[in-house]
Amino acid sequence: MRRQRNVKIVATLGPASSDYEMIKSLHLAGADVFRLNMSHGTHDEIAERHAIIRRIEDELSSPIGILADLQGPKLRVGVFAKGAEDLIEGARFRLDLDDAEGDATRVQLPHKEIFAALKPGSHLLVNDGKIELLVKDCGPDFADCVVVTGGTISNRKGVNVPDVVLPLAALSEKDRADLEFVCALGVDWLALSFVQRPQDVWDARELAQGRAAVLSKIEKPAAVEAFDDILEASDGIMVARGDLGVELPVQNVPPIQKRLIHKTRAAAKPVIVATQMLESMIESPVPTRAEVSDVANAIYDGTDAIMLSAESAAGDYPVEAVSTMHNVALEVESDPSYGEILNATRSVNRNSIADGIVSAAREIAEATDIKAICCFTSSGTTATLTARERPNVPIIAMTSQRSTARRLCLSWGTNCVMTGELERFKQAVVSAAHAARRDGYATATDQIVVTAGVPFNVPGSTNILRVAPCDERLIYNTEPE
Predict the structure, then answer these.
(1) For a disulfide at 1, which of 25, 62, 279, 441, Cβ 3.0-4.6 Å?
(2) Phi first, then psi: what are they for 381, rounded to 5°?
C-alpha cells in the first residue's frame, strides 16, 4: 500500500482498537506500525491482536510493522490506611521498607534499590511529578524528605528518581517473559523501557537473539547523558516525552527532542517521537491547535515516525486521530521549507561504499528527472541509509525478506515491496521497474535509480548504482547481465 507521505505513523492498540474492523480501519487511515503495549493486556489478548494484524497484512499484501513495548520496572509507593493523604509544602515525609499502611507522615516504598542509590539532596517525584520530595537524610531502608511541592498522594502512585542512575536492570522478570513471548509470536520491534545505560540494551539484544530489532525509549536523564552509547547499541530510538518531561524541567524537552532526532537520523536508524501528541483527541474529534503544531514540528525536525498512545488505544476517536496525523504530515511535507530544513540538517557521513552509493543516488535524483530510488536490501541497511539522506523522491525498498520489509515500515519515506530471490542484476532492474510502474511511482517513459549489492542477498554489500528506464524492453536491450 503506497502512502503519499514520508513520515510514518505508529498507532497503539488497546480496548478501543482491538477488533479486526477497527485495526483494518486504522491501517487504511494511515497507521504503518501497530504498538502492542505490554503494560496492558494479557498474552492471549496480545496474541489475538497480533494475529489480526497479520491477517490484514495478508489480505492487503501490505507489510505492517508490529512493535511490542515492554513495561520496564515500575516504581510505586505502597498503600495508605485512608487510601490517600494530602502532603503540605514544607512538611516532613518518610519513605521506608515497612509494609505497614501509610499515613500523612510516611508510606512504604518497596524498592530497596532506590534507597541504595539515594543521597541527601536527591529528588523524588510522585504521581507523574505532581509531588516533589527532597531527600534530607537516607539509609539502606529509609529516606527522610521534605515536601517541596505538595498534593494528594494515594495508593501505588508511581515514583521517579531523576537525579541518580538506579541499580535496576531495564528488564524485570515480567519483561523477560514478555520478551520471549512476543519474539516467539513474531513481532518486528521491541521497545525497551527504563533504559539508563547501554548495557540495558545489550541485555535485551542478547535475549532477543535477532528475532526482533531493539528500540530504546529515552525517558530518563541518565539515558540522555549516555545517549551516544545507547544509540550505538540500539536499532532505533523513541523520544518518550512523557517520563522525560517528568524527570527533567519541561522546557528542556524540546531541544532534547531535536538533538536526539538529529543524532539518530545521522546514525541511519529510525526515531519515533511519542507521548501526548494528540492527547485531546482521546475525548474530542478534533485536536487543539497546539497539538497540531507539536506534530508538525516533530515532522519538520526530520523524525521517522510519530506515535499515538491512548488516542488510538483507549480514545473515542482512534481513526480520526490517525487521519489527523496523516493530514498534518501531508501538509507539512508539501511545504517547500520542509525540504530545505531536511537538506540543511543532513549529516555528511561517508564511511563506506554503501554511504557513497546512497548519497550519489540522492544527488542524482535531485539533479535529474528521476521518479524513485529503488534499493535492493537483505537486512534493511541500504534502505535505512537511503532514508537518512531524506531524498525528494520516493524510496522503494525491494527485499525477499518479509521480516526486513516489516521492520522498514518504521523508516522515513520507505515503501516496501516483496521480491523473489535474485541472482542477476538485470533481474533486479526489471523487478524495480515493474514495481515502480505497478505502484504508480513512474510510467514507462520515466527513469529510476536502482541500487543493489552483488553478490545478491549478502547484507552490507551495496556496490552498484544504475539509472535505469522503466520500459522493460529498453532494460533488456541495454542492461548488462
Answers:
(1) 62
(2) -65, -45
- Run of H or E residues at 34: strand 33-37
In the predicted model, is pLDDT for residue 260 greater than 80?
Answer: yes
Helix (H, G, I), strand (E, B) or coil at 4: coil
Reported as a pLDDT band with limits 50, 70 and 90, residue 477 is low
- Domain total of the chain: 3
Indicate the residue among 300, 335, 370 that finishes a domain.
335
CA 10 centroid distance within chain? 8
Bond preceding residue 455 cis, omega within 30 of 0: yes
Residue with cell 487504511: 28
**Is-contact 6 410, C-beta < 8 A?**
no
In the block, residue with C-alpha cell 550505538: 232
Let me know how many helices (H) and strands (E) the chain has, helices first: 18, 21
Cα 25 from Cα 319, distance rounded (Å): 7
Strands (E) located in 219-364: 236-240, 271-274, 305-308
Residue 302 CA to residue 300 CA, distance in Å, equals: 5
The rounded distance, in Å, linking the Cα atoms of 450 and 374 is: 5
Are 179 and 41 in a shared domain? yes
Q: CB under 8 Å to 4, separation ≥6 — which residues?
A: 330
Please report how the helices 318-333 and 289-300 are oriented relative to each other, as an axis angle in degrees rounded to 10.
50
Do 457 and 427 form a contact (C-beta atoms < 8 A)? no
pLDDT digits (tens, 9 = 90+) for 188-243: 999 999 999 999 999 999 999 999 999 999 999 999 999 999 999 999 999 999 88
Q: What are phi and psi of 402, to 5 degrees?
A: -65, -35
Active site residues: 35, 76, 217, 275
Range(s) of the domain holding residue 135: 84-160
Question: Do 168 and 194 meet the contact criterion of CB atoms below 8 Å apart?
Answer: yes
**Could you tell me if residue 253 is inside a domain?**
yes
pLDDT in tens, 325-359: 999 999 999 999 999 999 999 887 778 888 999 99
Residues, the chain, total? 481
| Final residue belonging to a domain, choices 307, 335, 363 | 335
Closest CA to 45 of 313, 315, 319: 313
Q: Tell me the three cell numbers of residue 53.
A: 494484524
CA distance 56 to 292: 29
The answer to whether 65 and 1 are in contact (CB under 8 A) is: no
